[in-house]
Backbone:
């Protein structure tokens, strides 16, 4: 009986019920992928070394496990498997034999050493979908290099996209792992594509990289016209990536010409204004009793310094008026004329936010040793109901006995 048939027979309404995912990944991208699959109903078995996923030990809490690990591994079962031993390899092979999906983030040579290369997995289970997350991809001069989010952001230009003149060195925007998160989403999409491929046993090995994800986040800007700048010089004429001040000033010089898509200071705080259509921009101008000859294309480069001064003066007029009333006042005024605007919040405020709670975006887990932990809920709703995982993040090796019993029953059934 296939996993899909088991799903149909059980009457479960989450689309991946009956799908088994064997997850060898660590840190962020791979675990995010498999956490999302668990949210959709998959049985995710997290295979860990005797010391566990390294993220368990990153800024650990009182129970010696990380809040970041909690966030990325809810809904999974954990088994300890030492892939450096023959016994561990045999256990791993038996798990792969039961898999619909295998996910890992090892470089090819290391994966081959542990029996997780595509050829070995196909030899054990030819129907399994394999998803691999790497730093730089599996081809090219950097294919064998290990890299994390910061390395990918640096190499791809993403780190310089929000350069701050106050920094002595480039920094990640808000410390957010954009490359990791995007890679995890791409890996999840790949798995779902593989699971829908019922007509062919080919094209079931999917690869995504932190580099590809980093470029994807910049897709709107990763465009070069035929008359491109000379090699080593960007579209703003900057030739030296080491000149952080020049890069940051270039980014901000371009941004200051666009008054319709940015945050502003109000009389009591901040709010965001986001206009992407001419109609929306014109409504803002009408509300503020201002005129803008460049309203149709506020992103266009100024023809000269006089034009630049006029346009930056308009942005200053926006800012001056917005400081005269509260953020809630302006948000309401814009709502009345169908112009998108919203309050600026801190992440910590969202745990008790009505909108977040109403959509299943936060939930409380009871951890066996760590007490209650509030974590991200689920991005998925199915038939109007948030598709939440049933389990908190597992303790290291919590499900070894359980999985061993399941495998023994499978072997007995096969006889």
Residues:
């Amino acid at each position: 009986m296939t996993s899909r048939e088991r799903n149909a027979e059980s009457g479960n309404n989450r689309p991946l019920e009956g799908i088994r995912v064997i997850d060898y990944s660590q840190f962020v991208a791979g675990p995010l992928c498999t956490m999302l699959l668990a949210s959709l109903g998959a049985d995710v078995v997290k295979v860990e070394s005797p010391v566990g996923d390294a993220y368990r030990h990153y800024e650990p809490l009182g129970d010696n496990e990380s809040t970041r690990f909690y966030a990325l591994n809810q809904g999974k079962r954990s088994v300890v498997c030492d892939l450096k031993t023959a016994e561990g390899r045999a256990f791993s092979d038996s798990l792969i034999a039961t898999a619909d999906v295998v996910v890992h983030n090892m470089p090819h040579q290391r994966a081959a050493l542990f029996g997780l290369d595509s050829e070995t997995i196909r030899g054990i289970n030819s129907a399994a979908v394999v998803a691999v997350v790497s730093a730089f991809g599996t081809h090219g001069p950097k294919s064998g290099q290990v890299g994390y989010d910061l390395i990918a952001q640096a190499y791809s230009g993403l780190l310089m996209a929000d350069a701050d003149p106050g920094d002595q060195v480039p920094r990640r925007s808000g410390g957010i792992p954009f490359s990791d998160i995007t890679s995890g989403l791409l890996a999840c999409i790949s798995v779902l594509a593989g699971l829908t491929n019922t007509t062919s046993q080919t094209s079931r090995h999917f690869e995504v990289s932190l580099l590809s994800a980093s470029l994807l986040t910049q897709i709107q800007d990763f465009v070069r016209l035929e008359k491109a700048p000379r090699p080593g010089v960007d579209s703003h004429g900057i030739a030296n990536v080491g000149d952080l001040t020049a890069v940051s000033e270039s980014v901000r010089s371009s941004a200051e010409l666009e008054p319709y898509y940015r945050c502003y200071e109000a009389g009591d705080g901040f709010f965001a204004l986001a206009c992407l259509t001419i109609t929306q921009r014109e409504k803002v101008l009408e509300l503020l009793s201002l005129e803008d000859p460049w309203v149709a294309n506020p992103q266009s480069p100024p023809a000269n310094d006089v034009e630049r001064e006029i346009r930056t003066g308009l942005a200053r007029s926006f800012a001056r008026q917005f400081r005269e009333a509260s953020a809630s006042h302006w948000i309401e005024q814009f709502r009345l004329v169908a112009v998108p605007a919203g309050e600026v919040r801190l992440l910590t405020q969202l745990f008790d936010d009505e909108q977040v709670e109403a959509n299943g975006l936060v939930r409380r887990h009871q951890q066996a040793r760590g007490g209650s932990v509030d974590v991200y809920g689920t991005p998925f709703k199915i038939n109007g109901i948030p598709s939440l995982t049933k389990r908190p993040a597992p303790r290291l090796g919590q499900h070894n006995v359980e999985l061993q019993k399941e495998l023994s029953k499978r072997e007995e059934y096969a006889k």
Confidence is low (pLDDT under 50) at residues 1-11.
